[in-house]
Structures are given as structure tokens and as C-alpha cells.
Amino acid sequence: MDVMQRQEYIIDALNKQQTIKIADISEQLDISRETIRKDIYNLDQKGLVQAIRGGATLPESVSETRYGKRQHQETAEKQQIATHALKLIHDGDSVFIDYGTTAFQVAEAIKHSQLNNLTIITTSSFVVNALQFIKNIQMVVLGGSMRTSEGSLSGPITLGNIHNIYADIGFFGCGGVSIQAGVTNHYVEEVEVSKKMMTHCRTTVVLADHTKFKKNALYKTTNVSNIDVLVSDSAIDPEVASELKQAAVSLITE
Q1: Which residues does 190 contact at the CB level (< 8 Å), separation at least 6?
Q2: SS3 letters across 172-201
Q3: What is the H or E stretch that residue 17 is in?
Q4: For the chain, how big is the Rg over CA atoms in Å?
Q5: Nearest by Cα to 20 from 4, 3, 34, 37
Q6: What digits encode the pLDDT tens for the residues 115-159?
Q7: Coiled-coil region(s) at which residues (predicted)?
């Protein structure tokens, strides 16, 4: 097993367990503890893990908190973002809504809007639950394997179903946004779905509250230059807003 494979194994283990021990990884891979220690050190230097005594954990900027907890974090900001996002949708549009708590607020905004004849495409069971009984909305669920804690669908079935699906506009959540790393998120399977769906949307909109900027999650979804619109809230750092505008990103905050 080469360095890249070992480091990927370490990151995958952290995604599942949040904290790992050098001794455990050494035993699982049948590789010396010193080698694993060096791998963790290198990942720590890249900001992808946080080295601790005898092991590693995910730094706050990389780890994903529970869906239920995130629902109650920056709620006003997410609702503000959803209000801005709603203005980008028109009667008769086909709309992709990603998984995640900010994207869910877009579904809630649609639910209480006067928009008609929408087709909603989604990989989120929470979005389905919010909109399935609303008149004048047709639901298209992409299917796949569900990560139940997040209510998100991904995997080969999802990717296959996207092949013949196109949307007028797509709303995508994220774990972090920076000029250098681009748009990033936490789970590689879901990132692959977002990547493919972005190429099937006429307009790609990324939703990110002010806490997501200058943070990197583990896996890259796309460069900021590939975003058509980035919607945030009014608490965004003016310096960050200026950097995004200099990078020719269309930014909506008010």
C-alpha cells in the first residue's frame, strides 16, 4: 500500500469514527506505527486531520456535525439565503435541490411560495418529505444508497439516473468555500453526485452561509470559477466578498 492509499484509508477511517489511534491503523494495515505517525503528520500539515497524542481526529473545519444539530445552527442566515435563492426560480422551472440543511431551507421557501408547475429533482429525503404533497410540484427522486443520518442519496444508481436528467437551475450545499480549494464537501460519494449534477444544470447555484468561507472540507466539488451564482448571508466578511468578486463570482448577499 503506497502513501496515497494509506492516507486515504486514514481519512476514510476518520470520517467513520471521528478519532483514530495509530496502533489500530498500524494493526489494520500491517504497517509500522512510525509510518502511520508520519502519514498523520503529513495530513496534519495539509490541514486535513488534527494530530493528537497517539492518533488523529478531524479538525473542526473538516468534520461534519450531525444534521439535527446543524438544523439549529445559523438558522436565520440559512433562511435569508433561501429567500435570495427563491428569487432565482421561475414558474415552470426544473429545479435540483441538493442534500443538507441550507438546501433544505430552499425547499421550505418553495413550499410557502406562490411558484407554480415546478419539477423538483433531489437526492434528499428531507426535501422529498417537505414537498411531496404540494400541489403543482412534480417530484423526481434520483434514488441510490441512503446515508440515513443525512437523508442523502448517492452511489452508482444515483449517478446512472442523472445521465438523462437535466435541470434549469440547481442549488448545492457545501462544507467549505475558498478561492484556493474551491467548493468542498465531506463525503466523496455525495461529492461525485454533485459534480455530475452540476454539469446537468443550466445554472449552478452554491449556497454557503458566512461560516463556510475560508474553510476546506475533505473533497473538492468544483472550482469557484465554475459557479454561476453564490448565495450567502449579510454577515459574510467584506474581505471574503471582495475576494470572490475579484474572482468574477456572482455573489448575492442581499
Answers
A1: 99, 123, 147, 150, 152, 154
A2: ECCCEEECCCEEEECCHHHHHHHHHHHCCE
A3: helix 3-17
A4: 19
A5: 37
A6: 999 999 999 999 999 999 998 999 999 999 998 878 899 999 999
A7: none
Domains delineated in the chain: 3-57 (1.10.10.10), 67-252 (3.40.50.1360)
Rounded to 5 degrees, φ, ψ at 175 are -95, -20
Is the Cβ–Cβ distance between 38 and 31 less than 8 Å? no
DSSP per-residue codes, 41-56: HHHHHTTSSEEETTEE
* Distance (Å, whole) CA 176 – CA 68: 19
- How far is the CA of 24 from the CAs of 1, 57, 150, 151, in angstroms? 16, 14, 28, 30
C-alpha cell read off for 175: 462544507
- Residue whose C-alpha is closest to residue 176's, from 186, 166, 163, 161: 186
- The predicted-structure confidence for 4-59, as pLDDT tens digits, reads as follows 889 889 988 887 777 899 999 999 999 999 999 999 998 888 777 888 999 998 76
Measured CA to CA, the distance from residue 5 to residue 20 in angstroms comes to: 16
d(CA 97, CA 119): 11
Question: Do residues 169 and 205 touch, judged by C-beta distance below 8 A?
Answer: yes
